[in-house]
Each structure stands twice: as C-alpha cells, then as structure tokens.
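Lab notebook: predicted structure, single chain.

Context: the supervisor wants predicted structures on file for every construct in the current expression panel, including those that have not yet been purified. This is the next one on the list. No modifications to the sequence; it matches the entry in the shared construct table.
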Amino acid sequence: MNKTYADFLKKYPTFEETRHIDQIRREDYSRIDRTHQIYLDFTGAGLYGESQVRNHQQLLLENTFGNPHSTNPTSIAATHYVESARLSVLNFFKADPAEYDLIFTTNASGALKIVGESYPFTSGDQYLLTFDNHNSVNGIREFAHHKGAKVTYISISLPDMRVDESRMDEYFDLAKAGGNNLFAYPAQSNFSSVKHPLEWIEKAHAKGWDVLLDAAAYAPTNFLDLSRWKPDYVPLSFYKIFGYPTGLGALIVRRSALNKLQRPWFAGGTITVVSVQGDKFYMADGHTAFEDGTIDFLNIPAIEIGLQQIQKMGMDSIQARVKSLTGWMLENLTALRHKSGVPLVKLYGPMTTESRGGAVTVNFFDGKGQAIDHREIENAANKVNISLRTGCFCNPGAGELALGISRVELDVCFHQPQHENRLSLDDFRLCIDGKSSGAVRISIGMISNFEDVQAFLNFAETLLE
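Prediction complete. Output recorded below exactly as produced.
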C-alpha cells in the first residue's frame, strides 16, 4: 500500500467497505483496465458489465420473441418480459404499482417530452423551474408558453450553486388557484452535482403544484425511495444507471398525475378503437396510451438484468464509494497552485461532499489567471486516455450563472439581425467577449476506483506552470 492510498483510507475509511466493487470491476469490467482507459464521465453514461451483455444475449438466443401487440405465443413471451421489467423498475424505486405506473420511453428526454406535450396548461397556469435544469426540462417551457401558461425561473447562488431556500414559499405561492401548476427541478444537478432537497416535493404539493423530479443524474448513485418521496413525474435514462441498454428510459408517474395528461395525438398501440370514416379514436388506459408504436421489446429485458447488477453492488456501497472518491478529488484538485500562487482550477459547486454527487465541474487557469479553453483540456486528457466531458452539459441556466454570462450580454447577442435564426458556438463565443463558454466535468461513478481519481490528479499536475 503506497502512502498516498494510505492517506486516502485514513481520510475516508468507509471506502474499505466497498472493496467488493473492486472485485466486480476485475471480473466484469476488465476491459477498462485492459485497454488502459480512465473513465470519468459517469454523469454522461454509466458503464455496463460484460455479464449484462452475455445474460441478455443468452436470453435472446434461447427464446423466440414477437411483437407484444398480439396474443400469439411469441407475443405473450415478449409481453411477459416487458411487464416483468416494468414491475422490477417500480420495485427498485419502491414505487407501489397501485400508486405509480411506468411508461417506457427512449430516454429521460423522451419522458419529459411526454409531460411537456400532454400537461394540461391553460392561460394563467404556472410552470415553475430552477435555473439549474437539463435542457429537456427547460424545453417544457415552450409547451407552457404555447398554451398561455406563465414560466418562472428560480435563481441559484454562487459559489455553491444552490437555491436560496428561504424564498421557496414565495415561489410556491405563485400557483394559480384551481389551475394546473407544474414545478420541475433535478434531484441532482448534472452541472454542479448539487443535490436539491427532496423535501420540496411535499411543500410544493401543499401549495397546489404537481412536481416533476428529474432523476437522470441522481438515480445512478443514489436510492430514490418513492415510498417516502412522492413526486408526480420522474424521468430517467437506464444507460446512465447501468450502461446497457442505451435507447431506453422511463417516466415513472403517479396514476393520479397520469390521468391529467392529455396527449395531442395518438399512435399505433396507444388506442383501443380508432376510425377513419367516423373520425374518432379512444385512448387506451394507463401506460399503454403513452408507449407509441412497438416498444423496444427485445432490449427491455436487459433493464431487469441491469438492475440486478446494481443490486449486486449495493446502492449504499455505490454511494459511499462515490462520496469517498469525490471528496479526495475535491480536496486535492482545488489545492493545486501554480508557482505564481494562482489556483489551477475554479470549482463550480460545493467544496465538500455534503449534499452533492460525484461530478466535479471546474475550469482550468494558467499561472497568470487566464482561463484555458475547456476544449484544450479535453484534447490533452484524450491523449492519456482520460474520458471526461466539457461544455455546458445541456444545462444553460447553471452554465450561464457559473461562467458569469449576463442577461444583457445574451439579449444583445440574440437580438442581432444575423442571429435571428442561427447562432453557432463560435458566434456565441464572440458575443460573450472571450468568456468561457463551457467547463470541464469530471464525474465519478459506481465502479470508479482510487487509481482512476489519482490518474486524473496526476494529469492535472502536468498543467501547472
């Protein structure tokens, strides 16, 4: 045991309780070390175990599955595995099937689009959301605007990028009495990794709001107990949790909230009766009305296999592991200084592991305090097989605040005639006068180990002047 690792264990002794994950990594994720990859983009996508692929492949090779929209033997076989996966996901989140339903979608964005296009906004209703939200949550505002609802953003504050909770009642009081009011926020930020309070759910309900809780960044390393917390709409992507399959997500929805949704169209598989001559259609009940066309019935069984992989590791162990490694990354990365005394990085988000996840978002600076283009950092990391992510991570509200991009700059930029219909990233960089247009996100996940984190810290040291 080297001194650095010994120091780490002394600081984070609970890491030792997660050593079984190291064994799982050696046995089921050996390709990572065999190909000398340092994977630090878990907020972008989780990684799959080889056994997940083998088990899924075996299932497909040993069975014959047909389109579920029938009652023939192969259709019934497919339906059995689809419904088993649906129930497994609800059980994983402790969502009582009597209270919650689950709609399979292509990803979390697909789940959010269902809510956006179907939520019954009318004139004067309210759509309330935090600055800190994924673009697919921001996008719902376009449906709200179109239907005459009001859109209000809740600001976040530097340096921790949290909401001022003392003002939440003020925002919740905006609900239209007797109206359709939707409040949306992420359980965990995909930009700063801040964990926003789940207690907001009950407080919002008490003031007349339906609650959309984006769990896409939260669910991979935290247990969301839907027997305790009762959001109305919960979008998620399965590849972010266990890597495989991609192209599948879900909307977990309270049945009472599902009944409020009004789809603007119908599709194959979503109706009980439709007539061309009679110009009439009747929607199916529950999740069936929202699963357009033929669902991905061959890949859906892989979801249950992925959930078993997470259960083998244990969510408590995953969370403890991520917390320990994130603490070490935060402490050591923010301590790096150039000879001039200038810090190597500026952190966007909490300095400690309290109420935060495993993504560490920073920008790098040279010895004179000048920002280094985040794309240069990514290119340098690529050369040593480090996978990280740069940009604003589809979270413009958090990005604009963190990077100091003002409303005035944005208004001037967007209202230039040449930017009426098109704005490239290079055009935007000119608008903000050389300010950083993005950041570097290093995100730790379920099978990250100490060597991964230390490899990145060693890489960061090479950037010191």
